[in-house]
């Protein structure tokens, strides 16, 4: 099979997002204190998250095909171009791709990791995509809880939910990270959202006001991201969180000073760097200090 035939499926399943979510869950597992899970259990969690993320990505393409056709960024998606036929059988494929690995995770590993893996998928597919995305600018604020679920899916491999402060803190950090991350991108894509009649924040209040809100969220995020140091994280995490937070803050200040699509996209990319540094720092730090 040539890459040209495989490419539409890769676009549909959004594997890069799945890898990012799996890394988030891995960080949640490492910052929790308890009996380390076996390698096979970790691999099963990673597989369940990758497959459930792929199912949600596929559902997003299936459900949003009408507005995807209106936006320049998404006009080449498989269900829009017809490179893959939009048939109801896709819903069966999505259900199997989501449910089977989560059931196996619950049966072999535990109910809590399976529950939070499912909850993350539910938040993105149902709460965000179906319920909120087309109705309110709060869509990404509430829908952003999906990322927090990945932290909890990983941490409950090691300890019961609500038993330790660090996993809850990182879940909060992920919750606070999502809005400024997405709103930076939304400034870049505002024209697309106007064409699709989606109530994203820049469409509602304008780019400049959104830039100030991004800056406020980034500042709050930077402060909260340092709180885990009080609960045991060491210098590796502190360095990574500080560096990433300051870089994102700098890009947010630039966005306020000159609110345009170039600086908005730079702010968006800075948010990705900040998240990557925080998660990698947390994993490495936990290995050094045996949290």
Summarize the structure in words.
This protein is an all-alpha fold and 291 residues long. It has two domains: 1-159, UbiA prenyltransferase (Tetracycline Repressor, domain 2), CATH 1.10.357.140; 164-291, Four Helix Bundle (Hemerythrin (Met), subunit A) (Up-down Bundle). Helix content is 77%, strand content 0%. The protein is built from 15 helices and no strands. The chain has helices spanning 3-13, 15-31, 39-63, 65-68, 78-81, 89-108, 111-132, 139-143, 145-155, 165-188, 190-196, 201-205, 207-224, 235-257, 261-289. Helix 2 packs across helix 9 (145-155), helix 9 packs antiparallel against helix 10 (165-188) and helix 13 runs antiparallel to helix 14 (235-257). It is flat and about 50 Å long.
Features:
Four Helix Bundle (Hemerythrin (Met), subunit A); 77% helix; 291 residues; Tetracycline Repressor, domain 2; mainly alpha
Sum this structure up briefly:
The protein is mainly α.
Mean pLDDT: 93
The CATH first-level class of the largest domain comes to Mainly Alpha
Major sheet attributes: none
Share of residues in strands = under 5%
**CATH-derived architecture of the largest domain:** Orthogonal Bundle
Number of domains: 2
Secondary-structure element series: HHHHHHHHHHHHHHH
User: What is the overall number of helices?
Assistant: 15
Distance between the termini: 46 Å
Please state the overall shape, judged from the principal axes of the Cα atoms. Answer: flat
- Enter the CATH topology name of the largest domain: Tetracycline Repressor, domain 2
Question: Radius of gyration over alpha carbons?
Answer: 19 Å
